[in-house]
Amino acid sequence: MELGYDEAGDGRVLLLVSGFPVDRRIWAHQLTGLSDLRRVVAVDLRGRGKSPASAKGGWTMDTHADDLAETISSLGVDAVDLGGISMGGYIAFAFLRRYPEMIRSLILVSTRATPDPPEYKTGRVTTAERARRYGTRALAGSMLPNLLAEGAAESVEEEVLAMFDAVPGETSAADSLAMKDREDSTPMLGSVAVPTLVIEGAGERLLPPGTAKALADAIPEARLASIPNAGHFAPVENPDAVNEAIRGFLAG
Ligand code: MLT
Question: Could you tell me the pTM of the whole model?
Answer without folding.
Answer: 0.97
